[in-house]
Design brief:
This protein has helices spanning 30-39, 53-61, 76-86, 107-115, 134-138, 170-176, 188-196, 201-206, 210-215, 236-245; strands at residues 4-9, 24-25, 28-29, 45-50, 65-68, 94-98, 124-129, 144-147, 153-157, 178-187, 220-223. With 248 residues, the protein is of the alpha/beta class. The protein has two domains: 1-101, Alpha-Beta Complex (Spore Coat Polysaccharide Biosynthesis Protein SpsA, Chain A); 106-229, Spore Coat Polysaccharide Biosynthesis Protein SpsA, Chain A (Alpha-Beta Complex). The strands form two sheets. Strands 1, 4, 5, 6, 7, 8, 9, 10 and 11 form a nine-stranded mixed β-sheet that branches. It is globular and about 55 Å long.
Length: 248
């Protein structure tokens, strides 16, 4: 299999928005919007991975390829790893993980994320943008990443890193970090290593699964997106805001 593939993990259960993938945005379900973004990319294949028949039925109705997975997964990464095994993808196959609640993720960023793995030193690729506001930098719901000179991640955190010991450097600290976007690309061999490993202490503490890769000594290359993605959908307010961003 050449090029890269996209897997969209989608689950029905959501504490704040039950049935989130099937919620309507401008006349189409959210999962349909996400699927459309994926098919606009250069991916050779797009698969929706779910454990819920309602999502599977809706996806198949608009022509998507669906892979039914187990209901025991703790993360989208685990669900994608099962897809890779069920579809017998080679360890070198590049997979882009596009979350099912990212209907405003530009297709070109899927291409960009996959292309970052042309760097042979990288195990995982992701994207992050400059912070728009100081408030976002200080918000624990906005994940921060700092990079080294090779554009590899040093650390991800919900805390405001780097910490400005001198309060006059608060703006400088925000400029030194990037706002992480929840999109990843990995080779299937790396994906399989990640899901076999136990969660690290820092992953458990921060509740950020990408820290498992850093704990294992993997290199995560972090690119700045060519176009800033729209917001992901976690709340009813997000749903209203993203409706304004997407075409009717």
């Amino acid at each position: 299999m050449s090029g890269f593939v996209v897997v969209i993990p989608a689950r029905f259960a959501s504490t704040r928005l039950p049935g989130k993938p099937l919620l309507e945005i401008n006349g189409k379900s959210m999962i349909r919007h996400v699927y459309d973004r994926a098919t606009e990319s250069r991916a050779s294949e797009v698969v929706i991975a779910t454990d819920d028949e309602r999502i599977a039925d809706a996806a198949e109705a608009f022509g998507a390829t669906v892979c039914m997975t187990g209901d025991h997964h703790q993360s989208g990464t685990e669900r994608i790893a099962e897809v890779a095994d069920l579809l017998d993808w080679d360890d070198e196959q590049i997979v882009v993980n596009l979350q099912g609640d990212e209907p405003a993720m530009p297709a070109q960023l899927l291409d960009q994320c996959a292309e970052l793995l042309q760097d042979a030193s990288a195990d995982v690729a992701t994207l992050a943008s400059p912070f728009l506001t100081q408030g976002d930098f200080e918000n624990p719901n906005c994940v921060k990443v700092i990079r080294d000179a090779s554009k590899h991640a040093i650390y991800f955190s919900r805390a405001a890193i780097p910490y400005a010991r001198d309060t006059s450097n608060k703006t400088r600290a925000a400029e030194a970090a990037l706002h992480h976007h929840g999109i990843y690309a990995y080779r299937c061999g790396v994906l399989r290593q990640l899901v076999l490993a136990e969660p690290s202490e820092i992953e458990i503490c921060e509740q950020l699964e990408q820290l498992r890769a850093l704990s294992l000594g993997m290199a995560i290359i972090v690119g700045v997106p060519e176009k800033r993605p729209g917001i992901g959908v976690d709340t009813a307010d997000d749903l209203r805001r993203v409706a304004e961003e997407l075409p009717t």
